[in-house]
Amino acid sequence: MDYASGSPVDERVLEDMKPYFSEHFGNPSSFHSYGFKALEAIKNARMRVGGLIEALPEEIVFTSGATEANNLALIGAAARYKNRGSRIVISSIEHISILNVCKELSRQGFEIKYAPVDKDGILDLDALTELVDDKTMLVSVMTANGEIGTIQPIKKAAEIAHDKKALFHTDATVAAGKIPLDVNESDVDLMTLSSNDLYGPKGMGALYVRRGIRLKPIIIGGGQEGGMRSGTENVPGIVGMGKAAELAKVEMRSEADRLTKLRDRLINGVLDSVPESYLNGHPIQRLPNNANIRFSYIEGESLLLSLDELGVQLSSGSACAAKTLEPSHVLIALGLKHEEAHGSLVFTLGKYNTGEQIDYVIQQMPGVVKRLRAVSPLTPKELM
Ligand code: PMP
Which domains, ranges and CATH numbers included, belong to the chain? Predict the structure, then answer.
């Protein structure tokens, strides 16, 4: 139940990728049939990835993942459009690949402002309106948060950005394939996508760049990807991401319905059976596959280890920030105390999770929590 950290590649995706390793190994820039075959495959994938978000194929730039797409969006826009202003506004719960890029941009002289979220993790649109001024060059708000699953009002955020002539970027890494996305309807200029979150291969992503917007590339070389991302293309990876996007588009609605039912069964089952457990994030406006639950008086890490022994794999926050001992900045932004943030578990469900697995977790959780609370100095007597 940790799909956000890593998802299996769909068998159908793998089958489509296979010929592009050894059989159709050409370089898409070559002027011969091997090259044409690879180029054709990339064209097809670009169409499929664009199709998932209602973008044109030529608006898709393939990258090595969501981190690179976020880097290209922010650094590329900052370099190209700095004459529009020096302010960048982001939400306070962005992924570390946005936060750290902004720290770097701040060292380069950009002024970074953080828009707060409410106690459920929903962006404060009034605060955003106040922060976006005439010298704002870019606004970046994630479509949904990977830790607490909260879905943001990106259409309204884009409107606020555009009112001040700022560009609008959204990191849709964990939202794509889970909820319908339409770059035209929500009026987004730049959107980050990741392949593995769609059951495609890792190390693949894409940035949607609205027609007419030019970014300064961060990887410079032979001019591939319309000059925005040089380097010989990862053809099998691109083919895989394309197939994954096509499958997501077709299967998203029915899978989202199934996951929503599993998610709610899990949330209700755990909250009902474990005293002093609480849901983090918005109860309804959240991704169909995300549950984030806080257990008072215990550490998330000890819960993770106990549950792993029982065959259940979860996360205590973003896998990308797991190397730091700091509590999740997302949970702190909701107003939780450090010890509350430390006692939280992230469940991200996926394709191969079943109702039986959910029931098993609900069955095991009270005993695990009770055992850990029994050895925690923080636990009040009545819960022992
Ligand atoms: N953005 C968000 C919202 C994420 O959750 C993640 C991690 N899956 C990333 C960006 C970075 O993805 P990657 O490590 O694949 O580049």
Answer: 11-248 (3.40.640.10), 252-383 (3.90.1150.10)
